Automatic annotation (TrEMBL):
Residues 232-363 form the GGDEF domain. Its cofactor is Mg(2+). SMART domains: GGDEF. SUPFAM superfamilies: Globin-like (SSF46458), Nucleotide cyclase (SSF55073). It comes from Shewanella oncorhynchi. This is Diguanylate cyclase DosC.
Length: 388
């Protein structure tokens, strides 16, 4: 037996035992086999007329005519139909016979023959065979036995064909289900990815790429709770660009954006992976540093930040406010951020007052005096501007 036939039988789970079981369901016995074999010579004499009449009737149905199409297809169908009718009277209804019937079902399903058209064709074929029986067999009881045998065998064939229809439909449903599941998984993945992107966008400042203020309170609270469980300190740094509004007004907003991006870049490059860096708004930034004391932030972050920022912005100064909490007592997130903010503004006011005082002293100094009081340089290290 060919491999394709073996595969087909395996898929349909049809064995010789199953064939005998189906025959028994229709009471198809050895007597029926003999009745059909006895009529084979007459069928062979009339086979051309049966096939001609069959396709004459079939092609008169527009739906079937469309399925048949051209004359070459019709010629192939006539050959196949001739073989099918002769097989009905061969007297051998084994695995090979069943396999041929299964193939008929698969072909019919593949080319789009609906069950109603198939059943209509079966009825037409039976009527044509009955006409030959009625015109050729004089013995009424023998004619009835042959017709009964044909009825049983055709029903046997129909169940096989419908098995293939059902199997094909189940396969289509399973394929459609698989496609639907894959599509759903794909959509779920895309939705998840898009949701993550939107979530990241909602948390990220579009200009600087730092986290935005929307999640500052939540993040700070989460870090403080984790620090309490581990008895670790938390440091908050608040900073902004000095006289940024004046810079924007004189240099333009594009230059101002470049300054903010440069500050953000320096923050990213000098903070640790566990630190959380936010653009608070405008020219203000906030950094939350887990497991870090104020002194450590001054010595490590501030120093490195100033070195980094001088490389790109040597005419800009920044003001810092630094505070910490823990590891024994902890302030609330709002309070800690507010304290760092106030320290920054306190220093900013003190710095401006110092500059004004120094400027006034220089204005009052005698022209030939050698004593000159220098104002604070705008490029002054941010570490020197730390709030006490």
């Amino acid at each position: 037996m060919l491999q394709t036939e073996q595969t087909l039988f395996e898929q349909m789970r049809i064995t010789e035992l199953e064939i005998e079981s189906r025959k028994a369901l229709f009471s198809f016995t050895g007597a029926d086999v003999k009745a059909l074999q006895s009529f084979k010579p007459i069928i062979e004499e009339n086979i051309d007329k049966i096939v001609d009449d069959f396709y004459g009737l079939q092609t008169s149905v527009s739906e079937i005519a469309l399925l048949i199409g051209d004359s070459d297809t019709l010629a192939r169908l006539r050959t196949a139909q001739r073989r099918y009718v002769l097989d009905l009277f061969n007297g051998v209804y084994d695995l090979e016979y069943v396999n041929n019937r299964l193939r008929i079902g698969l072909v019919h399903k593949r080319i789009g023959v609906e069950p109603k058209l198939y059943l209509s064709a079966v009825h037409t074929l039976k009527e044509l065979i009955y006409a030959v029986i009625n015109g050729s067999v004089q013995d009424v009881r023998q004619a009835e036995r042959i017709r009964a045998a044909i009825d049983k065998l055709v029903l046997f064939d129909v169940t096989l064909v419908f098995d293939t229809y059902i199997r094909s439909l189940v396969s289509e449903i399973e394929n459609a289900k698989d496609k639907a599941e894959k599509y759903a998984q794909s959509m779920e993945s895309k939705v998840k990815e898009r949701t993550q992107q939107l979530e990241e966008l909602s948390q990220t400042d579009p200009l600087t790429g730092l986290l935005n203020v929307r999640h500052l309170q939540e993040t700070a609270t989460r870090i403080l709770r984790a620090a309490q469980r581990r008895a670790e300190p938390v440091c908050v740094i608040y900073l902004d660009v000095d006289d940024f509004k004046l810079f924007n007004d004189t240099q333009g907003h594009r230059s101002g954006d470049e300054v903010l991006c440069a500050v953000a870049k320096a923050i990213k490059e000098t903070t640790r992976a566990e630190d959380h860096c936010f653009r608070y708004g405008g020219d203000e930034f906030c950094i939350i540093m887990p497991n870090c004391r104020e002194e450590q932030a001054r010595e490590n972050f501030i120093t490195r930040f100033n070195q980094k920022i001088k490389l790109s912005l040597n005419n800009i100064s920044l003001s810092f406010g630094i505070t910490d909490t823990g590891p024994y007592e902890y302030e609330e997130a709002n309070s800690l951020i507010h304290k760092a903010d106030q320290k920054m503004y306190s220093y900013k006011r003190a710095s401006k007052l110092q500059q004004q005082t120094m400027a006034a002293a220089n204005d009052l100094a005698p022209e030939n005096s050698t004593a000159v009081i220098h104002p604070i340089s705008q490029s002054q290290s941010a570490a020197d501007k730390a709030v006490e």
